[in-house]
Design brief:
six-stranded antiparallel beta sheet; 14 helices; single chain; Transferase(Phosphotransferase), domain 1; 446 residues; elongated; three-stranded antiparallel beta sheet; alpha+beta; Phosphorylase Kinase, domain 1
Length: 446
């Protein structure tokens, strides 16, 4: 749970009975602040590394004690971030709880951004197997994470070992009636419980397995399969209409073998999804996660930046030169055009709402668009790739307060443009024929 009060700044303090010095802040969020700390009291404690991470959670409560117990129980596994202990800092009459953890410089988004997993099957298998081992270890101890995502999977720059972290939303009950986590990583049954009054429940273990499958998509494609697995999301709706081919169309780089595994993992029925052991066996036995690069006629867009906070947006760049244009387009090119159009990139909810105010073309993964012929989809992709109207804010010379922006100009959608063009094509011959007949009849011309 978020801290009930503003957390104090611990930089420069000597804490933990004079054993640690807080050097600098390295991370912050709604659930706490993370610092880098060093041992200063000699002889150094051999159980602790010289440099550790200190996570300040806030005022002691049921939630801080629960996170401590959950993380401590799971910390013995090598795929879980090491928990060394805790201490308290008094701020007036309030006790602030801090955890001493293993220090990691990066989360999983960093190697994804660097391209560590690009066309490297061994790297994908090694890292994802460690994630599955950590989740399996937690489930065997009766603990369910419920907030699995790349931001909560930490790693070192030189060590390929990845570790699970942040057990603030973990529970011991296998069935939960509250949905907690990040939208792209929540299963459809968890989201349906969140939209109801809380009377229904869902399997917390199945929700963790679903989140692991989404993380695997992040590692292979550096993108999300959808923003949320609800009927209001066009990508999820399109997947339900064509489960066998939607992911391979959206991600042209994935192999057919990997696509079949994802279809099983994203089955709307929780009982039909593979278990962690079955997923582990499928991952280790998979021949190739990626389609052969030469089979793609157009290079795949690469991620130039990855989100460091939940729900943050990606920025993609095309590896081709802007001056080169493909001569012919096939099904893989259509998918790439849809990716470069910008409407199916993972955006935050606020950014998506702001952008939808000025979006005049349906998204590329909308069921209506996917049902169109290939030529029409190509036309929509090209129209979508055109620059959108720029929003200009005007400022008064007398006052500092901003004036409301001008409303965007009225723009016809593709269907209206097509209808107008067809009417012109039909109307022109009819008008010419009527003029010719009127002149032959002796009536004056217009």
């Amino acid at each position: 749970m978020p801290a009930s009060r503003k957390l104090p700044n611990l930089t420069g303090l000597i804490v933990d009975c004079g054993r640690l010095r807080i050097d600098e802040q390295i991370g912050a969020g709604s659930f706490g602040t993370v610092y880098r700390a060093s041992q200063i009291r000699e002889p150094f404690d051999p159980r602790l590394p010289k440099t550790v991470a200190v996570k300040c959670l806030g005022e002691r409560s049921f939630y801080t004690d629960k996170e401590h117990s959950m993380h401590y129980v799971c910390s013995s596994h090598p795929s879980v971030l090491t928990f060394y202990g805790q201490f308290s800092v008094m701020e007036g009459n309030v006790e602030i709880v801090c955890f001493i953890l293993e220090l990691c410089k990066h989360n999983l988004w960093t190697p994804i951004t660097w391209g560590t997993f690009d066309y490297d099957n061994d790297a994908v298998k090694r890292a994802f197997s460690q994630i599955l081992d950590g989740v399996q270890s937690c489930h065997e101890r009766g603990i369910y994470h419920r907030d699995l995502k790349p931001e909560n999977v930490l790693c070192h720059s030189s060590d390929p070992q990845v570790m699970l972290a942040d057990f603030g939303m973990a529970i011991r009950n296998p069935n939960s009636n509250t949905a907690s986590g990040t939208l792209p990583y929540l299963s459809p049954e968890a989201l349906s419980v969140a939209l109801r009054d809380g009377s229904a429940t869902y399997s917390a273990a199945q929700n963790d397995i679903w989140a692991c499958a989404v993380i695997l998509v992040n590692m292979v494609t550096a993108r999300y399969p959808w923003r949320q697995a609800t009927s209001s999301d066009p990508a999820w709706s399109a997947f339900l209409l064509d489960q066998k081919h939607f992911l391979s169309r959206k991600f042209p780089i994935i192999s057919s073998e990997f696509n079949r595994l994802l279809v099983r993992c994203f089955n709307p029925e929780p009982a039909e999804r593979p278990s962690l052991a079955e997923m582990q066996a499928s991952i280790l036995g998979m021949h190739d996660f990626f389609r052969d690069p030469p089979s793609l006629s157009v290079p795949v867009a690469s991620a130039s930046s990855a989100p460091t906070t939940p729900g943050a947006s990606f920025s993609f760049e095309d590896s081709r030169s802007q001056s080169t244009k493909p001569s012919a387009l096939d099904s893989a090119d259509y998918s790439l055009l849809r990716e470069l159009a910008g409407d199916d990139k993972p955006l935050s909810v606020a950014s998506r709402q702001q952008e939808s105010k000025h979006s005049y073309i349906l998204p590329a993964d909308h069921p209506t668009v996917l049902a169109l012929p290939s030529a029409d989809q190509r036309l929509l992709a090209r129209l979508r790739a055109r620059p959108r109207p720029r929003i200009v804010r005007f400022w008064s010379t007398r006052h500092v307060t901003p004036i409301a922006p001008r409303p965007p100009p009225k723009v016809l959608n593709p269907a209206q443009r097509l209808c107008r063009w067809v009417c012109k094509q039909i109307k022109a011959p009819l008008v010419g024929r009527s003029l010719a007949s009127s002149r032959s009849a002796g009536s004056p011309g217009c």
